[in-house]
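Project outcomes to date are best conveyed with an example. Our students and postdoctoral researchers have been running inverse folding experiments weekly, and each run begins with a structure described purely in tokens. The record below, which covers 100 residues, was selected by the lab manager from last quarter's runs and is presented without edits.
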């Protein structure tokens, strides 16, 4: 299964959506909500994604999702949340590796 994550703060996101194949799962990120939480709540925890495509903005050392700048500091601030998420997924046998 393919997962397409599209930040709707992109000016041309409707054009992007029109060009993507229909055989995947789509997550549209709202700029008014925390993006990583949106992704976590939208994806099917039992799906095995063979491809993940992310459409957003970035800059050296950071990914820009909506109004959120995701960089090392941001990830370290949310480290405990990510570790709990990974631990819960591992209990389901989904094979996440601890990398945060």
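After processing, the design step wrote out the following sequence:
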């Amino acid at each position: 299964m393919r997962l397409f994550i599209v930040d709707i703060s992109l000016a041309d996101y409707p054009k992007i959506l029109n060009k993507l194949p229909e055989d995947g799962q789509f997550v549209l990120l709202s700029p008014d909500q925390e993006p990583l939480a949106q992704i976590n709540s939208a994806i099917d925890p039992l799906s095995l994604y063979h491809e993940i495509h992310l459409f957003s903005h970035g800059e050296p050392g950071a990914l820009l999702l909506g109004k959120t700048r995701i960089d090392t500091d941001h990830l370290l601030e949310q480290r405990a949340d990510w570790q709990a998420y990974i631990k819960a997924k591992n209990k389901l046998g989904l094979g996440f590796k601890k990398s945060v």
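Residues 79-91 form the longest helix (13 residues). The two ends are 25 Å apart (CA to CA). The training component of this project remains on track.
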